[in-house]
Amino acid sequence: NAGVTQTPKFRILKIGQSMTLQCTQDMNHNYMYWYRQDPGMGLKLIYYSVGAGITDKGEVPNGYNVSRSTTEDFPLRLELAAPSQTSVYFCASSLRDPLNTQYFGPGTRLTVL
Amino acid sequence: AQTVTQSQPEMSVQEAETVTLSCTYDTSESDYYLFWYKQPPSRQMILVIRQEAYKQQNATENRFSVNFQKAAKSFSLKISDSQLGDAAMYFCASIILRFGAGTRLTVKP
After folding, report:
1. Which of B50, B100, B101 is closest, CB to CB, to A101?
2. Rounded distance between C-alpha atoms, residue A74 and residue B97, angstroms
């Protein structure tokens, strides 16, 4: 199994540009999550989803949007990129609720200039 | 609100020795899980060990074990027989999805 995959691995954006970070899991997990990790910090939850068609905000949702049309995919959309969104983004999934072990993707390093 | 605190931004240990990383947390939940994640330079997050709060017995995974003090809301990670491959950032985490700032572990050969 591939587990959780993320694309791209690296990306540089200009201020005001938009992009979508892709996340796919092949473990048939119901729960999926997007985190961001700023330098020297722990992870902060952006959005999460408890199943296809259901999403909810996490700790730092401003500036981001998500959708969950299938169990496997959970893309994260940045509409108007800002320098404050420079970070490493991690996607994760868990079989059931967050109490279960979360499986993380390799991360996407995003720089906004 | 749930908070997770790691008071040691950096730790160092000699190869083959034991090191303990500290973590305290605050939660109003009565039942919860606690986790230690490892983040090597590759940046991928790897689960090291988890502890169910309702279990009194401390979790153990090979060289990794925890000292879970529920009343004190303390959840420390002990790494025995430290290896060079253990060098990484270590994050303590609790439900729901609150991470500490991390502890960078250096293993000296």
Report:
1. B50
2. 17
- Decide if A86 is inside a domain: yes
User: What CATH number is associated with residue B35?
Assistant: 2.60.40.10
CA distance A94 to A48: 11
Average pLDDT estimate for A78-100: 87
Phi, psi of A84, rounded to the nearest 5 degrees? -65, -15
CATH number at residue A39: 2.60.40.10
Tokens 């950032």 sit on residue: B89
| Assigned domain for A107 exists | no
Q: Touching check for B70 and chain A: CB below 8 Å?
A: no
Return the residue in B43, B51, B104 with the most chain A beta carbons within 10 A, the one to mutate for interface testing: B43
Number of domains in chain B: 1
**Domain count across chain A:** 1
Q: B21 pLDDT band (50/70/90 cuts)?
A: very high
